[in-house]
Amino acid sequence: MWNKCMKALLYFFLILLAAMCLFPFLMMMVNATRSGAEIVTGFTLIPSTHTADNWHTVFEYFNLFVGMRNSILVAIPATLLSAYFSSMTAYGLAFYKFKGNKVIFMAILIFMMIPGQLSLIGFYQLCSKLHLINSYIPLIIPAIAAPGTVFFLRQYILSSLSPSLVEAARIDGASELYTFHRLVIPIISPAVATMGIMGFIGNWNNYLLPMILINKNEKMTLPVMMATLRSSTDINANQGAIYLAVAISIIPILVVFCFFSKYIISSVSAGAVKE
Questions:
Q1: 131: alpha, beta or left? (left if phi > 0; alpha if psi -120 to 50)
Q2: Which whole number is the average pLDDT over 171-197?
Q3: Residue 238, domain CATH
Q4: pLDDT digits over 116-127, tens only?
Q5: Cβ-contact 270, 189 below 8 angstroms
Q6: Which of 8, 66, 154, 155 is packed most tightly, with the most Cβ within 10 A?
């Protein structure tokens, strides 16, 4: 009886926690249907009828679909390249014993602690000299170097990939690239998918760097375009349009998370491979 009560209490707190997590999304969806005046005057969970007005207000400032396209052109290549090369780097640091291995790993840990904003001015000057302003290249290529992703994948490889499997592949005559693509990546795919989701969210929501490097309106990413609503003179009247734009902008994130969230669970629960 005591166990059933504890189990019921645990489920109650889990449901309450889930409701608390979903409540901001519910508020966002409701406010997307309300006008700015209604949002300023009070709080309610009853949807309103101003969705069409908010939609027209958004498109008065920017093309929402162009912003989503631009963000996709940045987020998907940056995420895929970061996941692939971070996996390769982590595998090399975990299984290749060479002089300077620990020094490189310590350097990666140090770079994890340095805020990216410190190098922003120098990075802008470099992009200007290379004529990369208003280009997506500075938003994609630097994203490949992800110290946090390398650190996570290296620790995952050490805990889940047995050295005997790699040695057996080498004995059978498999090349290093073949071993990496056919043996290592399938085993560490849960961790790669997990960091890929996090990387996609970070690249999709990236605001500071695109705001500085992208000056043409037709090339701006969605977060930069949405800032035009927040910086407008009549911000109170545009509150509903802001909520609508935010609600639409998180749809790709929710789609990616829903499809690949199972990999997060498996990456946490996966055990080491027995020799």
A1: left
A2: 87
A3: 1.10.3720.10
A4: 778 888 889 999
A5: no
A6: 154
DSSP 234: T
> Which alpha helices (H) appear in the chain, and where do they start and end?
2-31, 36-41, 51-61, 64-95, 101-112, 120-129, 137-144, 147-160, 163-171, 176-179, 185-204, 208-213, 222-230, 239-249, 251-269
Range of the domain at 262: 18-269
Q: How far apart are CA 166 and CA 186, in angstroms?
A: 13
Q: What is the dihedral of CA 53, 56, 61, 62, to 10 degrees?
A: 140
In a domain, 179, yes or no: yes
* Amino acid 238: pLDDT: 75
Task: Determine the Cα–Cα distance for residues 230 and 226; give it in Å rounded to an integer.
Answer: 7
This prediction has a pTM of 0.84
User: What total number of domains does the chain contain?
Assistant: 1
The reply to whether 25 falls in a domain is yes
Determine the straight-line distance between the first and last CA of the chain, rounded to whole angstroms: 43
